[in-house]
Design goal:
- The complex is a heterodimer of chains A (367) and B (260).
- By secondary structure, chain A is an alpha/beta fold.
- About 2% of the residues of chain A have low confidence.
- Chain A has a five-stranded mixed sheet with strand order 3-2-1-4-5, with helices on both faces. A five-stranded mixed sheet of chain A has the order 8-7-6-9-10.
- In chain A, 40% of the residues lie in helices and 17% in strands.
- Chain A starts with 19 loop residues before the first strand and ends in a 17-residue tail after the last helix.
- Chain A contains eleven helices and ten strands.
- Chain B is an alpha/beta fold.
- Chain B has eight helices and ten strands.
- The longest helix of chain B is centred in the middle third of the chain and has 18 residues.
- The N and C termini of chain B lie far apart (58 Å).
- In chain B, 45% of the residues are buried.
Chain lengths: 367, 260
């Protein structure tokens, strides 16, 4: 750590109030800003989804995401300060005790926008800068709403590009014990939804059908469920669906997602419910295996896919049967948000674990 | 304790721009900072009370995001200035490296947001053009080659010691624009001349350009600061629109096609 990049921990006058943190997350296509008092006093949590901006491309265009982040980040920050201040007027930036930002993993160009704004604020305000691993932060959506949870914990993080199992023995003491080796679960659901002609992101549409229909008698595989490890693989399940549709003359295997398939309406629900049951079985099976092997009495589920009502039902039933405690954040804190980043940052600030101005951004999740 | 904590000098209270007397600003001498991260060079320049008070011109490649704030901090500290003591901020707004341009803009916009000081954006082609000093009234061209045979191009006339852009900046192919430029002198900057050749004819087209003799060998922060201050002083109490980056290339540039 270089001396020249170090930041002062000059604290504002707080009159006994708990520390006030600002968190920024621009790791993917959502611009998120949150203001948090202490560990759980969420004063503002705003996310500007760029979804419509990328719709015409059928997926996120990294350069477009980076451009949009720069356009909206200051207006979003101003709005968050106004919301947090309420009737007394916008909170002044000088009231902040620290500035946190997700610096991995994600689209590097996007990360750099949020990180540069956060660094500039930390330097100008003479406050500590805290770089946060976005994947480590996801489970903190649970700490934010449920309070302190008993360690050791197993966390399933089913976020857009990553499905990981984390074993956590204390704050800042955690390791990844399982991860997706190809498509993440959410990615697989989105791609299959696209095969059925549902607009991106297709997760919510698949979830609605899985909630409304019993799974039909379709033999979709449970990839890697019986393998003696905690890793995931979902690309084979996506391919199984492709072959299933192709065998019915409904999809051209060479043109994945180019044409929405058209099953008889009565069949689509049971087919997608069966597909989602395969996803849920693998996620639940691996998470409970991790809890058993690692001696964790409680598990948390977070990330975009954790917003799924059907996944919640399956987890609740399985955890009740296994005698394992289960925690989910509310759906609004499952998808990308800066509130979870702020919550983890609050623990980091209290522990004095802060960064300096030479903080780097990384696209990948370290092994 | 950080360097920032020990910094000498401070922000003297000053009137809001709209309350300030209009005339004496130029004469009083301004504190001003210029930031250019549009290429692989980190370029900074600082004026204290109207006089040069330090600069940076370093090819730091992809380390811009790590280097920029410590280097700005050191520059200001060396001159005994707090960020709040700056009167004007100047930033290069592109075209150039997309990510680099955004890093400079993110720093400059945040500094302007926190300090409440005006931020002036300057185009990179204007900056290239300011390296030359041709005869009054003469016409010349500035070209910036960022990738392959593509060039950002603009035409300038030298007036009263400054390059004045005629028309607009356009993204062209060197093979198309070189014949149009003909014998007129050019200021050319190339980010990364290709090691293993380029599109057929492009190198020949670059080689055929007639370079303008340069008074300043580099498009450095001092040039940027001069241009920014000239814009600011022309309208010191004007309302400064938010500075936005100039990309001139579609974000979905994998499918980008050159115009006619």
């Amino acid at each position: 750590m270089t001396t020249r990049g170090k930041l002062a921990a000059r604290a504002p006058a707080r009159d006994g109030a708990e520390p006030l943190g600002l968190a920024i997350d621009t790791t993917f296509d959502d611009t998120s800003v949150a203001l948090l008092r202490g560990r759980r006093g969420l004063l503002a949590s705003l996310t500007l989804s760029q979804f419509a901006d990328h719709a015409e491309f059928g997926g996120v265009v990294p350069e477009r995401a980076s451009r949009k982040h720069l356009e909206v980040i200051h207006p979003l920050l101003d709005r968050a300060l106004a919301q947090a201040g309420g009737e007394r007027g916008p909170l002044p930036l000088a009231a902040l005790d620290y500035v946190a930002v997700s610096n991995l993993p994600g689209l590097l160009g996007s990360i750099l926008v949020g990180m540069t704004v956060a660094k500039s604020l930390a330097w100008l305000l003479e406050r500590p800068l805290i770089g946060i691993n976005h994947i480590e932060a996801h489970p903190y959506a649970n700490f934010l709403v449920h309070g302190e949870l008993p360690f050791p914990l197993v966390h399933l993080v089913a976020a857009g590009g990553h499905t990981v199992l984390i074993h956590q023995t204390d704050h800042f003491r955690w390791r990844i014990v399982g991860r997706s080796v190809d498509d993440a679960a959410g990615e697989c659901v989105d791609k299959v939804a696209k095969l059925f002609g549902h607009p991106m992101p297709g997760g919510p549409a698949v979830d609605r059908l899985a909630l409304a229909h019993a799974p039909g008698p379709y033999p979709f595989p449970r990839p890697m469920l019986s393998e003696p490890n905690l890793d995931f693989s979902f690309s084979g399940l996506k391919t199984a669906m492709l072959y299933f549709l192709r065998d019915r003359g409904l999809a051209d295997a060479g043109r994945l997602g180019s044409q929405g398939a058209s099953l008889p309406a009565a069949e689509e629900g049971p087919v997608l419910a069966a597909f989602f049951a395969a996803i849920a079985d693998v996620l639940v099976g691996k998470t409970l295996r991790a809890a058993r092997e690692l001696g964790a009495p409680a598990v948390t589920v977070s990330g975009g896919l954790a917003a799924s009502g059907r996944l919640r039902q399956v987890f609740q039933a399985a955890c009740r049967e296994a005698g394992v405690e289960l925690y989910f954040p509310p759906p609004s804190l499952c998808t990308d948000n800066a509130a979870m980043v702020a919550c983890l940052a609050a623990y980091r600030f209290e522990a004095g674990r802060v960064d300096d101005l030479t903080l780097e951004g990384y696209p990948n999740l370290p092994l | 304790v950080s360097a920032r904590g020990k910094r000498a000098g401070g922000a003297a209270p000053r009137p809001e721009p709209s309350d300030a007397p209009p005339a004496p600003i130029a004469g009083a001498g301004l504190n001003a900072l210029a930031i250019d991260t549009t290429s692989d060079v980190l370029s900074l320049a600082l004026h204290k009370a109207g006089r040069p008070a330090g600069s940076v011109y370093d090819a730091i490649g992809r380390r811009t995001t790590q280097e920029i704030l410590p280097r700005i901090d050191a520059l200001l500290r060396g001159a005994g200035l707090a960020p709040e003591a700056l009167d004007v901020l100047v930033v290069a707004r592109g075209p150039g490296s997309f990510t680099g341009t955004r890093i400079g803009l993110a720093v400059a916009l945040t500094m302007a947001r926190v300090t409440g000081r005006p931020l002036v954006g300057v185009d990179t082609l204007q900056l290239l053009a300011a390296q030359g000093a041709p005869k009054e009234g003469s016409v010349f061209h500035a070209l910036l080659n960022c990738a392959r045979d593509e060039v950002y191009h603009a035409r300038f006339t030298w007036r009263a010691g400054l390059p004045v852009m005629e028309g607009e900046i356009a993204l062209r192919r060197i093979g198309t624009v070189a014949p149009e430029i003909g014998e007129a002198p050019v200021v050319l900057r190339r980010f990364a001349p290709p090691a293993s050749g380029t599109q057929p004819g492009a190198e020949a087209a670059f080689a055929a350009l007639r370079p303008l003799p340069l008074r300043h060998p580099r498009p450095d922060g001092e040039r940027l600061l001069t241009l920014g201050l000239s814009r600011f002083l022309a309208d010191p109490h004007g309302s400064w629109a938010p500075v936005a980056p100039i990309y001139l290339k579609s974000e979905a540039f994998r499918t980008w096609r050159p115009g006619p």
